[in-house]
Write a structure and sequence with these properties.
The protein is α+β, with helices and mostly antiparallel strands. The chain contains 12 helices and 4 strands. It is globular and about 65 Å long.
Length: 341
């Protein structure tokens, strides 16, 4: 057997979840021994025995394994298009969302993403935004793969119920554990201010990245350590009745910046119930879209309107981030109040 190594360009990568998804899918191919994907330069390095196939043929074959997740592999680097025209629709959608957000805040249903004013309604809204973002691609990919596997065995509904139950319950319990861990630290006003800025900065990077206009933002996006995320993802490969339940639990540890920003807030609560209900509200916000993925071939990423979806989500996340940063600066007395709501 002759081992060959090739480096290909990948089109459709948005975040660290994409690296994990591509590596996981391509490693399932029998003649491939190693796969390393790289978000920074949108590439994948593949090692294996490809026989007499040309590089073009290999690229086409590999694309077949990941095309359903919205990725394509090619020899030549594809020019990325910012698609500025999408903003004509995305901007009005974001403005309507902002008006709705302010209205709900007036009613006290939601609040700014700030340690002193944050509530569960806001966590739920952030969950909704996260569910239509590329950041949740790996969770959607796991769902689609798992659904297809169990559907072949004639079991469509039980795996879905186990997955969503495991996800929702585990987010509450593990969020509570994070809250308890936070109780071991006494957060003074300075620490709360710094944590608020960190949450705001993480969300700002997420929002800019979702716009798919400034590609340098991909390099700044934080993520769960890759070895933890890989182990969480590999649980889906287990062939057992309770695998869907374990996969649902494992999604808590997958590389999603939205999840991690909520985990940071749960840590700041210093309380089991507050941390648990924060993560529960976030998980419930992601549920409608994930449930839609479960029982259909629905995929926002593969939709012709995906650019509008992601740009709308990006603008909304940037709004959350700026509100949070400004509110943190106001709470610290650094600047005067800007928004009277």
């Amino acid at each position: 057997m002759s081992t060959q190594k090739y480096i290909f360009n990948v089109h459709g990568m948005h975040c660290n979840s994409c690296e994990l998804m591509i590596e996981s899918e391509l490693k399932e191919i029998k003649n491939i021994s190693d796969v390393k994907s790289n978000l920074k330069n949108n590439s994948v390095e593949v090692t294996g025995d490809f026989g007499d196939k040309t590089k073009e043929q290999i690229a086409e074959e590999l694309t077949g394994y990941i095309k359903t997740h919205g990725y394509t592999i090619s020899i030549e680097k594809q020019k990325s298009s910012a698609k500025w025209g999408d903003f004509k629709i995305a901007l009005p959608i974001a403005i309507v969302f902002a008006i709705l957000f302010i209205f709900l805040q007036k009613l006290g249903i939601v609040n700014l993403v700030n340690a002193s004013k944050f509530n569960y309604g806001t966590a739920f809204l952030i969950g909704i935004v996260a569910s239509v973002s590329s950041c949740m691609a790996v969770v959607g990919g796991l769902l689609l793969s798992m659904s297809a596997t169990f559907a072949k065995e004639g079991d469509k509904f039980k795996p879905q119920i186990l997955f969503h139950s495991g996800r929702i319950v585990s987010f509450f319990i593990l969020g509570g554990v994070i809250g308890l861990i936070g109780s071991a630290f006494t957060l003074n006003s300075t620490a709360t201010f710094i944590l608020g800025l960190i949450i705001g900065a993480v969300m700002l990077i997420l929002g800019i990245n979702l716009l798919d206009v400034f590609h340098w933002a991909k390099k700044l996006q934080p993520s769960m350590p890759k070895f933890i995320a890989k182990r969480a993802h590999n649980i889906s490969k287990l062939n057992h009745t309770f695998t869907p339940l374990l996969v649902g639990i494992a999604t808590f540890f997958l590389p999603c910046g939205f999840t991690q920003s909520m985990q940071l807030y749960a840590l700041s609560t210093g309380n089991f119930l507050k941390g648990g209900f924060t993560m529960l509200a976030f998980a419930l916000g992601t549920f409608p879209v994930l449930a839609l993925i479960s029982f259909s071939s629905f995929s926002i990423k593969n939709s012709s309107k995906s650019g509008i979806f992601f740009k709308s989500a990006g603008l909304i996340v940037i709004m959350f981030a700026l509100f949070n940063i400004i509110n943190s600066l106001v709470a610290a007395g650094i600047i005067a109040p800007i928004f009277n709501f």
